[in-house]
Specification:
Layout lengths: L1 H5 L2 H17 L8 H10 L3 H7 L8 H9 L6 H23 L4 H13 L1 H7 L5 H19 L5 H13 L5 H14 L7 H15 L3 H17 L1 H7 L3 H14 L7 H21 L6 H23 L12 H13 L3 H24 L8 H11 L4 E5 L6 H6 L6 E3 L8 H11 L5 E5 L3 H4 L4 H8 L2 E9 L3 E8 L2
Parallel strand pairs: 1-2, 1-3
Antiparallel strand pairs: 3-5, 4-5
Helix pairs in contact: 2-6, 2-7, 3-5, 6-7, 6-8, 6-9, 7-18, 9-10, 10-12, 11-12, 11-17, 15-17, 16-18, 17-18, 22-24
């Protein structure tokens, strides 16, 4: 392409990275939602305390430890989210590196596509481990293929990033297994199967010290699953949706729209465009193309099979597969004629930017607005008032943002509504209280019949106002009437 010949490719890459930075900075200071607040609270503890309370967070410890030291720079949302932003920006450079396995044009196309990808942008703005998982996934794909090309030193780099990936996401095991089956299937790569197994085994051995903690996390996870099927459906997806929903999120990010028929139609059209572009790069003699395609297909298949027995998978946990899609897409674009390549690339950019703007301009798609919700309640509550939650304990964002956490009370002991527990807590805490603020957050899971609202009224309180905050839901203000 002529303009690439005129400009230094390094300059183009820098411009792409800067563009990615601008897209990732918009709304970076929005409120923490449940998981991010929990992340901030966990990471703000001492390292010893972090490792002790990790069972409450179903993730390995690497990001928690990195976030612990990052907190030394400040605890504002903007500051903390800069950590995943950095991982997201390094991912642009990393996929450029991986794209060079094809050629420089593919490298630049891949860098451009991931810089504007709505899903990659969203999780580059989230104070959680997903952007790091995406970055390590790229390095794993790159270093493994370089190793398979005969660069012996790359095996050690592969082992290192694989180990780090395991300490970032438990689902990294799906990538390792997908890579194993890919090498097994592709005849040209099969000669290095033993080396792959050896270095992968070394990574697993280095991960073994964490297994006792994983056992504790599994026990807690199964406990929550047994308490509420609704909770399981809220944090994960059934096996039948793993592949279609993951690919949908890869394409349009976190947005959705009604009716469902229109959503499916739009996704089908965009999906067909993606599939057609990827197919343009098909060459049964191209080992790299086969390596990438088989890896992502098997990765998604393994995640689906696993979800049949254990429904714990969600698209964000499979974000390390997104760069593979991007690389295949970029390769396909370079196989088109120059005119078609321009047009299709422009079309992909428009689709990504539209999805990005829909998310950024529509608060309903954005994260839970706990900051403003807690600020309102804190300003209204007095020492004679109580803040109640339909939750087993105090939600992490309330603890993080509130200046008056001691006046908060979770009315449940588990994720299931228990009348006797609620009545006992209300009996013990409502006397001498004049005003109550009741958050209905996660009500659909813990109190779908709104029994708690009725119980509060039976204790002599009347609802006088209701406030609505994005993602947090309704906050009912009650006042004693007798």
């Amino acid at each position: 392409m002529k303009f690439l010949n005129k400009l230094n490719r390094s300059t183009v890459l820098i411009l792409i990275i800067l563009s990615g930075l601008v897209l990732r900075l918009w709304h970076l200071n929005q409120s923490f939602w449940l998981d991010e607040a929990a992340q901030a609270i966990i990471s703000s503890q001492t390292i010893k305390e972090i490792l002790a309370i990790m069972p409450a967070d179903f993730h390995p410890p690497l990001f928690n430890l990195l976030a612990h030291f990052w907190l030394l720079l400040g605890d504002q949302e903007l500051v903390l989210r800069l950590l995943p932003v950095i991982f997201g920006l390094v991912s642009i450079w990393a996929i450029y590196l991986a794209g060079n396995l094809f050629n420089r044009k593919v490298a630049l196309f891949a860098a451009l596509l991931i810089s504007i990808n709505p899903f990659a942008i969203y999780y580059s703005q989230e104070f959680r481990p997903y952007a790091l998982s995406m970055l390590l996934g790229i390095f794993s794909i790159y270093f493994l293929y370089r190793s398979l090309q005969g660069h012996k030193r790359m095996w050690w780099y592969f082992m290192l990033v694989t180990t780090l990936h395991l300490y970032t996401s438990y689902l990294a095991i799906f990538l390792i297994l997908a890579q194993f089956f890919t090498i097994l299937i592709i005849k040209q790569l099969r000669v290095d199967l033993f080396k792959f197994c050896l270095f992968s085994a070394l990574s697993v051995i280095l991960f073994l010290p964490w297994l006792p903690n994983l056992s504790g996390q599994l026990k807690l996870g199964f406990s929550w699953s047994s308490q509420s099927a609704a909770w399981v459906n809220a944090v994960s997806i059934p096996a039948s949706k793993v592949i279609p929903l993951t690919l949908a999120k890869f394409v349009i990010g976190q947005i959705n729209f009604s009716p469902l028929v229109l959503y499916v139609l739009v996704l089908s059209i965009i999906g067909l465009i993606w599939s057609w572009i990827i197919y343009q790069g098909f060459n049964k003699k191209d080992t790299l193309w086969l390596y990438l395609l088989i890896t992502i297909v098997i990765g998604l298949f393994l995640a689906t099979i696993f979800s049949i027995g254990f429904q714990v998978v969600s698209p964000k946990q499979l974000i390390f597969l997104l760069p593979i899609c991007i690389l295949l897409l970029a390769n396909g674009l370079t196989r088109l004629s120059t005119q078609n390549s321009y047009f299709v690339t422009f079309l992909l950019i428009i689709i990504s930017i539209i999805c990005y703007l829909i998310y950024q301009l529509n608060p309903s798609f954005q994260r839970e607005d706990w900051r403003d919700a807690v600020r309102l309640v804190d300003n209204k509550v007095t020492t004679d008032d109580l803040i109640l939650f339909k939750f087993n304990g105090l939600p992490a964002p309330f603890i993080w943002y509130s200046d008056k956490p001691a006046q908060g009370l979770g009315l449940l002991n588990t994720l299931q509504f228990e009348q006797s527990v609620v009545e006992q807590k209300l009996t013990e805490n409502l006397p001498n209280k004049n005003q109550i603020f009741l958050f209905d957050y996660l009500e659909g899971i813990t109190d779908p019949e709104q029994n708690i609202n009725q119980d509060i009224e039976q204790f002599g309180f009347k609802k006088i106002d209701t406030y609505d905050f994005n993602g947090v839901g309704l906050i009912d203000e009650y006042q004693r009437i007798n």
